[in-house]
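seq:
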Amino acid sequence: MKEILIIAGEVSGDIHGSRLVREMLNLESDLKFYGIGGDKMMNAGVELLYHVKDVSFLGFTEVVKYIPFMKRIKKKLKAEVEKRKTEKIILIDYPGFNLSLAKNIFSANRKIYYYISPQIWAWGANRVKTIKDVIHKMLVVFKFEEDFYNENNIKVEFVGHPLLESIADYKFENKDTFFRQFNLDVTKKLVTIFPGSRKQEIEKILPVSIKAAKKVSNDSNIEIAVAAVSNFPEQFYKQYEGDAKIIYDRNYELLKYSDAGIIKSGTSTLEAALFQLPFVVVYKTSLLSYLLGKSLIKIDSIALSNIISGQKVVQELIQADASAEKISMEINRLLNDRNYTMNIKNSFKELKKKLGEVGASKRAAELILEVN
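struct:
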């Protein structure tokens, strides 16, 4: 039986990894997967050596204290690759760890595939040489990434974005049932906060977002919800239960049925755009992490939806600008300025056209297994 190492260090990577694994097993049933992932990858048949909740860190300063732990993980993975005689490795996003691991386990008789590229077009091209040296093929989810790697003479295939199939396959609960289930008033406008899935993100972003949403709800007929994740301690969310409805692991219904969103920078901004949800981007981190990141970042926007659109479609409130006052002002505009929100939604329609066709996971599986 062929054993394949697969690494996803974040919740979104776990989702995409589980779909990829299932597609690969459909093509070749005698495969065994092991590595790092979450519950979805485990349910797809991956033997988890570590769970995403063990390795999901944020920012430069937060990562430093975990360096010895991460070194032990890389040492363990290298030993497993050698013991199991693994010939194919799949890395999903999570660049700081994955590229370092790739250098450690690279050899001429192993093929390392990178699914969902590191955002080297945002952070500068200092990682291009590493990718060129150790990655067999990049499987990218944005067309402009294919152009970037082609220009740098790196093997690459554009497979489309897996979010399209995640949304297409999702079985939505209808709005009335969903609202009744979570005691939401269907006659009120719904503002949902998506504060991320990492501890450091949630602790920085949720308090100010709750404060902003409350300022809006005091003036309007509005309800507030928080898109919570079950792999984060419940007691943290409990302090906000009087201010908002805490709803676990139901992001797609919340994206579909909300009237406006307060969303942490990341994949959720792309998901919101695909759902045509008007939103404001909020991002806060430690001051040192922010200053280091700002010195390295090479693009004007941090929200994927803005980057792919090529323009600042939605407002980005970062660090000091991510105040309750500024967030609430933008939410009020999104709820009350019809022309403003229609322009945003029209831009979102154009963005969707840039993401390719449904079927990214299957195309990636075929490329890794070298079928057709």
